[in-house]
Design brief:
- This protein is of the alpha/beta class.
- About 30% of the residues lie in helices and about 10% in strands.
- The protein contains 23 helices and 27 strands.
- The strands form five sheets. Strands 8-9-12-14-16-18-19-20-21-22-23-24-25-26-27 form a 15-stranded parallel sheet.
- Helix 11 links the parallel strand 3 and strand 4.
Length: about 800
C-alpha cells in the first residue's frame, strides 16, 4: 500500500459523515464461508462472544450489521476466485471507489442545494439520451461551485468522468489546449496508453474515439471560446448514449444553440443575508444592531456570492457601527454589478505589506501553481511576515489554500490584482511593478525599457512548448530571440537588460539562456528561479548580496559557484538543486549560517556531502532523495540542532548513518527507505521529537535496536519490504504510535506480546507475509474506507495481547 492511498482513506473517513460515502469490503480467505460471515457463525462466533463481553452488545451490534452486509458481497468469495485474480479485482474495485472522492466545495453554500436539485432533475441521468448543459452567468455568481456540486452528485454513477478546471486560463498558455486534452484523455481512459501529440487536431480524433465508446460525465469549467469546446468535446453527436456534459461560461454566445442553456441566478435577498452574515459575523443571522446595515450592504453587493464572501470577510474584524457605516459608504460609490470595485474595497483595507503580498500572489505565484510553503519561503526572504500575511489573506477570503497545499485565487480576484498593476502605467509595461505576460516581458527586455519600478518577473519557457507559431506575427517577434533547430530552440536573454531594474526582487527565467556579464543582475534580488540553467557554474561576477532563495532545479550545473560568490551570498535561506544530474559536489557552506532548506534530490553524481553541512545550526530541511551515488554523510552532525526533516529515500549506496545522529534533537521525520543501511545508530533514542521513521525496502536491515522504544513521539513506523526479522519488545513502549506497517516483511515470524500496549495504534498493516499452512488462520477484514488483503506465509500466530489495542481501527 502506498502512502497516498493511506492519506486518501483518512480523507474519506473525514468526509464520510458529511457526504454519505461509505463502502464495506469483505475478503474471505482460506475457504471462509460467506454465510458464516453473514451470521457470525463458524470461526466468527467465538470472536463475537468475546467482543460482546469486552465492549457490550450495544456497540457490537453495529459490527454485526457490518458483517452481515459484508457477507452479502459475493464478489470477493475466494472459493470462487483464484487468489491472484481476487486481489487484482479488489485493487481495481478499490481504486475506482477511491476515485469517487467528491471535489471540495466551499464550506458555506447557501442556496446551493435547491439549485443542485434543479439541475439534477434537468440532467436526468437515468434517461439514455445525450445532454450537454451550459451554465452561464456573470463572474462571481457561483457557476464553478454549482458545477462541482452537481458533479459530486453523479461521481459514483459514471465509471468514466472528468472535471476540467480553468479552461480559459490554461488554454491561453503555450500548449494549453494540448495539456487540457491530455488531462481529459487521462481521466476518461486511464488504463490505456493513448499517445498525446503536439497537434490539437490529432488529439481531437483520439478524444472522439473515447467519447464514442464510453458513457461519461465531464465538466468543462470557465470556457470563453468555441475553439476550446472544439478541442475538448467536439460535437454533441460524438458522445455515447447516457453521457452528460456540463460547460460553465460567462459568455452565453460560446454555447451552441443545440445545447441546453441554464442561467445561474444571483442569490435572493434572504440567501444573500445568510451568506454575508456567515462571513461577516460567523452566524446565520446578523445581530439586531447590525441587521439594517447588513440588509443595505447585501442590497449593494447585488447577490453575488463572491462579493458577499469577500466583503463579509472584510468586515469580520470590524465590530462597531461606525466602521460598518464607513465601509458601506465606500460600497455606495461602486456602480451596480461592478464586482471588481467591490472586491477592491477589501484590497484597499489591507496594510501596505499585505497588499504587496497579494499582488505578488495574483500576478506571479498563482500562475505557477505555487505551494504555500514555497511562497512563504520566498516572502520571508523578502523580509515580509509571510505566515501572518498568508493567514490574513485567507481570512479575508482573498486567497485559499487548495487540498494539495497550492495557493488558489478566484479568477476575479486575480484579475483585479492584475488590473491594479496594469493601471500603474497602461502604456509602458516597463513602468509597472510586476510582469507576467510573456510579450510584455520580452518587449521590455528586448528594448531595454526596464526601470526601477519593476519588482517581479515570471518567465517560463517550459520544455517542449516552443513550437512553430500559428501566426507570422508571433514568428517575427520571437525569431530574433530563438536559436537552434526547430526541435532544439533556445531563448536567449542578455543580462544588460536587467541592469536598470534596481528594485527587482523576484525573478523567474526558466529554460532560458543568459548571456553577458552577471554583474548586471540586480544585487537586491531575493528570489531567483532558473530551472534548466545553461551555465556549468555560477560566474564569479554574480553578486547576489540579498539573495534568499536560489532554485536551479533540473540544470546541468556542475559546480554551484566560485569562492568569491560563496562569500557574498550569505543571506541564502533556501537552496534547491533538485534534479541537477551533473552536480558532483556541493561547496563549503560555512558562510551560509541562516540556510534553512537544502534540496539535492536526484543529484545522481553526488557521492558525499561537505562536512560543513553537519554544522548548519539553522537548517530545518535536508532532502537527499534519490542521490543514488551517495555513499557518505558528514561524520559529525552535532551542529544540526534544529533539523526537522531528513530525507535519504532511495540513496541506494548509503550504508551508514552518523553515529551521533541522535544529536539532531529537533528531528521529526527520518526517511531511510531504499537505503543500504544495515543498522540504526544506538544514539537514535535521543530523537525524542521523531514522529515518522520510514525504513521501507531496507534490504540489509534485519534488526531494530532495543532502544527504539524510547522514541516517545513516534507516530508512524514503516518497515515494508525490509529484511527485518523481528520486532524488539520495546516497540510496545511507543505510546504515541498510530501506524505500524510490516507489508512484505517475509522474514518476520512473530509479533511481540508487547504490541498490546500500543493504545494509540490506529493502523497495523501486515500484507503478503503471514500465513503458515500448519496453523489454521483466517483473516476477515471490514474497512469502511479501503481494503487490505493479507496473504499469510510465515506468521504462526498473533499475540493474545493484541486485544489491548484499544484504538485499532484497521488490522490487515
Amino acid at each position: 500500500m502506498t502512502r497516498s492511498w493511506r492519506e486518501e482513506r483518512r480523507s474519506l473517513r473525514a468526509c464520510r459523515g458529511h457526504s454519505g460515502f461509505c463502502s464495506c469490503y469483505s475478503c474471505h480467505i482460506k475457504q471462509v464461508d460467506p454465510s458464516d460471515v453473514r451470521r457470525q457463525k463458524g470461526p466468527f462466533e467465538e470472536d463475537f462472544v468475546k467482543l460482546v463481553q469486552r465492549f457490550g452488545e450495544n456497540k457490537v451490534v453495529r459490527w454485526r450489521r457490518a458483517t452481515e452486509k459484508a457477507g452479502d458481497i459475493s464478489d470477493w468469495d475466494s472459493r470462487i476466485w483464484d487468489e491472484e485474480q481476487l486481489v487484482q479485482r479488489l485493487v481495481k474495485r478499490i481504486s475506482t471507489e477511491l476515485s469517487n472522492t467528491p471535489i471540495r466545495v466551499a464550506a458555506c453554500t447557501v442556496g446551493l442545494n435547491s439549485r443542485v436539485e434543479q439541475l439534477v432533475r434537468l440532467l436526468d441521468v437515468k434517461s439514455r439520451g445525450i445532454l450537454v448543459l451550459g451554465l452561464h452567468g456573470m463572474g462571481g455568481v457561483g457557476k464553478t461551485t454549482l458545477a462541482k456540486a452537481v458533479y459530486n452528485k453523479f461521481v459514483g454513477q459514471f465509471e468514466h468522468r472528468s472535471f476540467i478546471s480553468n479552461v480559459r486560463e490554461i488554454s491561453g498558455k503555450d500548449d494549453g489546449l494540448i495539456s487540457l486534452q491530455k488531462k481529459l484523455i487521462d481521466d476518461l481512459y486511464p488504463d490505456n496508453k493513448v499517445v498525446i501529440t503536439n497537434e490539437v487536431k490529432v488529439n481531437i480524433e483520439a478524444i472522439k474515439r473515447i467519447l464514442e465508446e464510453r458513457k461519461v460525465i465531464a465538466v468543462f469549467d470557465d470556457v470563453d471560446d468555441i475553439s476550446q469546446l472544439n478541442a475538448l468535446c467536439g460535437k454533441k453527436e460524438w458522445f455515447c448514449e447516457g453521457s452528460r456534459i456540463i460547460i460553465t461560461t460567462r459568455d452565453r454566445g460560446v454555447l451552441p444553440e443545440n445545447y441546453a442553456h441554464h442561467e445561474v441566478q444571483k442569490l435572493d435577498p434572504s440567501e444573500s443575508l445568510r451568506l454575508f452574515s456567515y462571513h461577516a459575523l460567523r452566524r446565520e443571522k446578523p445581530a439586531d444592531q447590525f441587521l439594517d446595515l447588513s440588509k443595505q450592504i447585501v442590497s449593494l453587493t447585488g447577490g453575488l456570492p463572491l462579493a458577499l464572501e469577500v466583503f463579509g470577510a472584510f468586515l469580520f474584524d470590524k465590530r462597531t457601527i461606525p466602521e460598518w457605516e464607513d465601509a458601506m459608504g465606500k460600497l455606495r460609490k461602486i456602480r451596480p454589478d461592478n464586482l471588481q470595485g467591490i472586491l477592491k474595497i477589501s484590497f484597499d483595507g489591507l496594510d501596505e505589506q499585505d497588499r504587496c503580498i497579494f499582488l505578488d500572489i495574483a500576478c506571479l505565484f498563482v500562475e505557477m501553481e505555487m505551494k504555500r510553503e514555497e511562497a512563504i519561503d520566498i516572502l520571508k526572504g523578502c523580509g515580509f511576515r509571510a505566515e501572518i500575511a498568508i493567514s490574513v489573506l485567507v481570512a479575508k477570503s482573498l486567497i485559499r489554500i487548495a487540498e494539495d497545499d497550492t495557493l488558489w485565487m478566484h479568477d476575479q480576484l486575480r484579475d483585479m490584482g492584475r488590473q491594479i498593476v496594469q493601471q500603474e502605467n497602461l502604456l509602458d509595461a516597463g513602468q509597472r511593478s510586476r510582469l507576467w505576460d510573456r510579450h510584455d516581458i520580452m518587449s521590455v527586455l528586448m528594448l531595454k525599457k526596464g526601470t526601477r519600478s519593476i519588482q517581479g518577473i515570471v518567465l517560463d519557457f517550459k520544455e517542449g512548448i516552443l513550437k512553430k507559431k500559428n501566426s507570422s506575427a508571433d514568428t517575427n517577434f520571437w525569431g530574433n530571440h530563438q536559436h537552434g533547430s526547430e526541435n532544439e530552440r533556445e531563448t536567449i536573454l542578455y543580462t544588460e537588460s536587467f541592469e536598470s531594474m534596481v528594485s527587482l526582487r523576484l525573478l523567474q527565467i526558466n529554460y532560458i539562456k543568459l548571456e553577458g556579464k552577471f554583474k548586471f543582475l540586480p544585487a537586491d534580488l531575493k528570489w531567483l528561479q532558473w530551472k534548466k540553467c545553461t551555465v556549468k557554474t555560477l560566474p564569479s561576477d554574480f553578486c547576489p548580496f540579498q539573495l534568499a532563495v536560489l532554485d536551479l532545479s533540473n540544470s546541468a550545473i556542475e559546480h554551484v559557484w566560485s569562492s568569491y560568490t560563496n562569500k557574498v551570498a550569505k543571506n541564502l535561506m533556501v537552496m534547491n538543486f533538485r534534479g541537477c544530474w551533473n552536480l558532483a559536489a556541493i561547496p563549503d557552506l560555512s558562510e551560509h549560517q541562516i540556510l534553512e532548506k537544502l534540496v539535492l534530490e536526484g543529484c545522481i553524481k553526488l557521492t558525499k556531502i561537505h562536512e560543513s553541512v553537519g554544522n548548519m545550526s539553522k537548517l530545518l530541511h535536508l532532502n537527499l532523495r534519490a542521490c543514488s551515488s551517495l555513499i557518505e554523510l558528514p561524520s559529525d552532525v552535532s551542529g544540526l540542532k534544529h533539523l526537522e526533516k531528513l530525507i535519504l529515500s532511495r540513496c541506494s549506496k548509503l550504508k551508514n548513518l552518523p553515529e551521533n545522529l541522535g544529536s539532531m534533537r529537533s528531528l521529526k521525520e527520518l526517511l531511510l527507505d531504499g537505503t543500504a543501511i544495515e543498522k540504526l545508530p544506538k544514539s537514535i533514542f535521543y530523537l525524542v521529537k521523531l514522529e515518522k521513521l520510514n525504513l521501507d525496502n531496507c534490504q540489509l536491515l534485519k534488526q531494530l535496536p532495543e532502544c527504539i522504544g524510547k522514541l516517545d513521539a513516534l507516530k508512524e513506523l514503516s518497515l515494508n519490504h525490509s529484511a527485518i526479522e523481528e520486532l524488539p519488545d520495546s516497540v510496545g513502549s511507543l505510546a504515541n504510535l498510530e501506524q505500524l506497517s510490516l507489508i512484505g516483511c517475509g522474514s518476520v515470524t512473530a509479533i511481540p506480546d508487547s504490541i498490546g500496549n500500543l493504545k494509540s495504534l490506529i493502523e497495523f498493516l501486515n500484507w503478503w507475509n503471514c500465513y503458515r499452512k500448519t496453523a489454521y488462520f483466517h483473516w476477515f477484514i471490514i474497512i469502511f474506507e479501503g481494503f487490505l488483503c493479507a496473504k499469510c506465509q510465515l506468521l504462526c500466530k498473533l499475540p493474545e495481547s493484541i486485544e489491548g489495542l484499544a484504538s485499532l481501527v484497521e488490522l490487515s
